[in-house]
Amino acid sequence: MKSKSGDNMDESGNSGLERIEDGSVVSNIHTSKWRVFTDSGRDYFFQGKLEPAERLFGSAIQEAKEGFGEKDPHVASACNNLAELYRVKKEFDKAEPLYLEAVSILEDFYGPEDVRVGATLHNLGQLYLVQRKLEEARACYERALKLKGRVLGYNHPDYAETMYHLGTVLHMQGKDTDAEALIMDSLKILEEGGQGESMTYIRRLRYLSQIYIRSNRLAEAEKLQRKLLHMMELSKGWNSMEAITAAEALALTLRLSGQLGEALELFEKCLNAQKKLLPEGHIQIGGNFLHIAKTFMLQASQMRRTDKSEALSKLEKAKNYLENSARIAKDVLLKLKNQKIKAQKHEKSSVTLRNYEHAALVILLQSLESLAALEMSKNEIQEPKEENLHIAEDSLLQCVTAYKEFGSGTQLQDSSEVKSEYLSCLKHLSALVAKKETTLNSKASPISLPELKEEISRIEIDLRSQKTG
User: Taking the model in full, what pTM does it have?
Assistant: First the structure.
């Protein structure tokens, strides 16, 4: 019995479902049905057909209890499978008691120190992790780690997997020193086991680089990201989505650390490769347009006092990219809006479409807000023009319209990232409207200042409740 984690797949590309590895001689009609229901349920699960999989896994539990006995490990395996399905469906209240029942059965049958107990505890830890129940997740992972280390050995990949997940929990709890040590140890185990170029290794290395970025250790993050890009170039070639993703991540870090020239060069190299690999108007191309525009804007900010003409030139380049990123994102959102009814018939596809839609809305909001910031920057570099303020206000009003058209009333309205971008637009619009109200002869804004303040307050309350919920 092997512990697996992730969504319906873990970081190694495997499911947390239990395979049938039955050496038992027990055989009757119930055990035969258990086997058929389990195999069929797994097949449906991997096809993304969760409703028939749920029915079959539920039936497998009942047949296991009747065929093997209420407290038999086959029942624990069946409980684990249904729990994994509920975790994927985010029906956490249904998943938890099934995991706990599986742990109890295995402890009673094999003893509390058995590795199979550790495998199920790992899965339970994953359930708590996705719910942000960090103390509960930590307790499960710590116990699973001890069991796996003692039974499997301290260089086993399953031990390294639980070690990595425990590291992610500790990072989320703000214990970065301990988290870093665990993740680095898990990487070392993979390296020593000949998996230093596997996708599991790459994903863990990428996560460690993100920890460094969040803690502002940009030089260390840059070092890891250069290693990742080198690995992708060697294994996949530069003109691959894997290499482009690694290069974009490195470029973002370089931009954060002020290395704007190299960042821009990398973004442009990514864009050229994306245009060869992706269809015109793909949202990833829109996202790269946004990255390039923001880099030009930062360059303009550095030049505003020394070379105003060049700074304004950089802003004009940025504006062109921002207009294109906004256009692409809006086109994508309009197309997806028309596809929603069709997508609902295909559960797996609809999840992909929702992720695509989420990315497009975030890019649209950021592009429109950046266009407003760009016009305000022009006024700070050159003689202020009222026209620039009108363009800035119009861009921010488009932000509000975009959120209401594509976010409000959809699943996207629950995204904290979307709400945060919308809130940022509202605050900038509020400041601009307040400035206009102090200026004589200014045209009244379509949204009043009190309305904006009320909406800002509402979104802030929503975001606070999401953080504490």
Answer: 0.84
